[in-house]
Design goal:
The protein is α/β, with parallel strands linked by helices. It is about 30% helix and about 30% strand.
Length: about 325
């Protein structure tokens, strides 16, 4: 492991994604910070930081994925522990920002939970947030501290470039994902298509029609999150019915809850490409699923934040 020279950079992991955290520290060249996360007999979280962090830039790696409430609580308690241990800065690294889909009031009397989570992190004492592909970019504005948002598209596009697929069209599964699809299409030098769908209720999608030319082409559907996989599998089936010769799918955050894996296995999707912002359980590691690591990207971003250099130039 190459050794990073500045001992004032400290990285700690909690329980959400320790495998990714260990990959990140390996890329940076620092040892993992010594801490323990345990439970009292009644289930309350107990955290102990087992080394001095006084005057250090601390980076806490924790996806707020399922069980989201447990992982958020661990993170809040760890932030408080770092603040009381006189850390110079407390940088929260959220590969996946849970509750991000509750970013607005779609109906009367609904909460805006993404804003509530932002308030909790700030109140606990976070100095900065480093995250990847927020579900809605306006979530950055929910914080009054700096938020650096990294992009998963370059990692996904590099993978598809190496596959040398021919006649590619990049497909957005809904109107809201067009900007993301355009970014991937620009990198692959491919046209885009859009699936016009109506969603009667949460986690239920109904495909309406396809805008764009997909007949005889290799379609790549891109989304930020795949949860129950209803949208993505319906989209894949619709693309094949309209003449696509092959369908691939990709996303940054593989939530893959409920019937997702079964749906993907039985769908027209040739391959689903995801990143490791959320750890995949063994039951989700089927042949159709390919996992790419975001560790090199997040490690470089952490170094740049620590050294006060530009993060945005990572994507130039």
């Amino acid at each position: 492991m190459p050794k990073y020279g500045d001992s004032s950079l400290k990285v700690f992991t909690l329980n959400a994604n320790p495998e990714l955290a260990h990959q990140i520290v390996e890329h940076i060249g620092v040892p993992m910070g010594k801490s323990s996360v345990t439970r009292f007999s009644d289930g309350e979280v107990q955290i102990n930081i087992e080394e001095s962090i006084r005057g250090d830039d601390v980076f806490l790696i924790q996806s707020t994925s399922a069980p989201a409430n447990e992982h958020i609580m661990e993170l809040l308690i760890m932030i408080d522990a770092c603040k009381r241990a006189s850390a110079k800065s407390i940088n929260v690294v959220l590969p996946y920002y849970g509750y991000a889909r509750q970013d607005r009031k779609a109906r009367s009397r609904e909460p805006i939970t993404a804003k509530l989570v932002a308030n909790l992190l700030e109140t606990a004492g976070a100095s900065r947030v480093l995250t990847l592909d927020l579900h809605a970019t306006q979530i950055q504005g929910f914080f009054d501290i700096p938020v650096d948002q990294l992009m998963g598209v370059p990692i996904l596009s590099d993978y598809f470039k190496e596959k040398n697929l021919d006649d590619v069209v990049v497909v957005s599964p809904d109107h809201g994902g067009v900007i993301r699809a355009r970014k991937l299409a620009d990198r692959l030098k491919a046209p885009i298509a859009i699936i016009d769908k109506r969603r009667p209720k949460p986690n239920v999608a109904e495909v309406m029609n396809i805008v764009g030319h997909i007949e005889g082409k290799t379609a790549i559907i891109i989304d930020d999150i795949i949860d129950t996989a209803g949208t993505i599998t319906l989209a894949a089936n619709a693309l094949v019915e309209h003449g696509a010769k092959a369908v691939y799918a990709c996303c940054t955050h593989p939530v893959l809850s409920g019937p997702a894996i079964e749906r993907i296995q039985n769908s027209k999707i040739c391959e689903l490409v995801v990143t490791n912002t959320i750890p995949l359980g063994e039951e989700k590691k089927i042949e159709k699923v390919t996992e790419l690591s975001v560790a090199p990207l997040m490690a470089e971003a952490i170094i740049r934040v620590h050294e006060n250099t530009s993060v945005s130039t990572l994507f130039d």
